[in-house]
Amino acid sequence: MIKISSSFSPLKIFISSSWKDDLIKEELKIIEEDIIPPLFLKPIKSDLGSDDSTKLHSVKVVRNCDIIIIILGEKFSSTVVDEYYEAKDNGIPVLILIKGNPKMESELQGFFKEVSKGKTYKRFNDLDDLKRVLSENLIQLISEKFRHYQEIYKVILPLIENYIVKIPKKLLKKLGRLS
């Protein structure tokens, strides 16, 4: 009998924000510790800083993530902008959350005008609102973006379990390594 493992790798969620922005520090902690882990997702933070090596590393990490969440407050960060465009260029879904109606630095206002054209952002006012907005939108984003995987599994796994589909030995070995 073929035994298929039901274990899976969690989606990697990249969390991006300006490290200088005190307005959203508490929210970042809540996202990393209280919201993402119970959804069986793996939070990945950008490194603090804005020098060139940090930006290059951060952009590289974004390429290997499944979803990017950007939290905006008042402070601008060119690293966040680079991370956003890297995600967009690579087809990685982006969810932008903005705390209230902050008095954004002028450069951040320009970036916000650009991203708001695509309506890819949501606002929140307090921690409870953040939990609700993030949970609802993240679940919706995951179900839309990764729907085709669910469809494939629904069809293929019962066929495999019932021996209707024969799997080549090479593929079985690869499947075994994934679990």
3D structure, described in words:
With 179 residues, the chain is α/β, with parallel strands linked by helices. The protein folds into two domains: 12-145, 3-Layer(aba) Sandwich (Rossmann fold), CATH 3.40.50.450; 148-178, no CATH class. It has seven helices and five strands, in the order E-H-E-H-E-H-E-H-E-H-H-H. It has a five-stranded parallel β-sheet with strand order 2-1-3-4-5, with helices on both faces. Helix 1 links the parallel strand 1 (12-17) and strand 2 (42-45). The chain is globular and about 60 Å long. 23% of the residues are buried.
**Strand pairing plus helix content: what structural class?**
alpha/beta
| Strand numbers in spatial order across the main sheet | 2-1-3-4-5
- The helix/strand order is EHEHEHEHEHHH
Helical content stands at 40-55%
List low-confidence stretches.
1-7
**What fold name goes in the CATH topology slot of the largest domain?**
Rossmann fold
Short description:
The protein is of the alpha/beta class. It has helices at 25-35, 52-63, 78-89, 106-116, 127-145, 147-161, 169-178; strands at 12-17, 42-45, 67-72, 94-99, 121-124. It has a 5-stranded parallel β-sheet with strand order 2-1-3-4-5, sandwiched between helices.
Record keyword descriptors for this entry.
single chain, 179 residues, alpha/beta, Rossmann fold, 2 domains, 5-stranded parallel β-sheet
Question: How is this fold's topology laid out?
Answer:
Blueprint: E1 12-17, H1 25-35, E2 42-45, H2 52-63, E3 67-72, H3 78-89, E4 94-99, H4 106-116, E5 121-124, H5 127-145, H6 147-161, H7 169-178
Parallel strand pairs: 1-2, 1-3, 3-4, 4-5
Helix pairs in contact: 1-5, 2-3
